Amino acid sequence: MPYKNKFVIKKTPSLFCLLMSLSLSATIYLNLGEPRLFFSFFSPLTQEQSTPQNPPVSHFETLKEKIKRNTQNGELWFSLGNEYMQQREFENAEQVYQYAHKLSNQPDSNIFAALASARYYRNKQNIDPQTQIWIEKSLTLEPHNLSAHLLLATNNYLQGEYQNAIEHWEKALDAHTLAPHASSLDRPTLIRSIQQANRMLL
Question: How far, in Å, CA of 25 to CA of 82, rounded?
Fold first, then answer.
């Protein structure tokens, strides 16, 4: 399902490709609350090529430079939030996603899911009232939002609510089926997580 352009730069529409859940859904912590690879359900990102004459520059620094030149680009702010999530700087991620939200013309499911994910991990994997509100807004706008279902599945799993975790992981698989090009979801890893939760029910 293609994403609509939702951000404006000086009142001029700009392309908005959310890199849905790259993220965010970057947000999966399993096994006694100990964090695993931040993108455990997502395929590795393609790294830019570098040479001795062209040393690598971190995507984080590149984004910050781009934002300095164009502070009203919501897509860049959203991507910066994803970078903070990777670095586990959840408070910064939440603040940046808030700014991306302010730059949006209309409510966006992925931004609400991102806000919920950042706040969830900032609060040490606790769904507080504000996090719940953002999750509900995300799923109201897009019932099959991948990141929102991954977040709920993670929380259910950590709470020992394995059947609920399975249901949300299955909805995440359905979401990816509906929009297979929206993210680089690692389906085999997600399926193994479902199998693990099933074993916990035995």
Answer: 9
Neighbours of 9 (CB within 10 A): 15
Question: Which of 36-45, 89-98, 99-108, 143-152 has the weakest average pLDDT?
Answer: 36-45
CATH number of the domain located at residue range(s) 7-29+58-201 in this protein = 1.25.40.10
- The Cα–Cα gap between 182 and 200 comes to 31
Taking a C-beta distance cutoff of 8 angstroms, is the pair 146, 175 a contact? yes
Backbone angles phi, psi at 35, to 5 degrees: -65, 135
CA 12 to chain centre: 26
Find, among 2, 26, 63, the residue nearest to 154 by Cα.
26
Which one-letter amino acid corresponds to residue 59? H
Domain boundaries along the sequence of the chain: 7-29+58-201
**Structural contact between residues 3 and 16, judged by C-beta atoms closer than 8 angstroms:** yes
Q: What pLDDT digit, counting tens, does each position of 164-179 carry? A: 999 999 999 888 777 6
Output the six-digit token pair for 79. 């991507």
Instruction: Give every CB contact of residue 62 below 8 A, 6+ residues apart in sequence.
Output: none
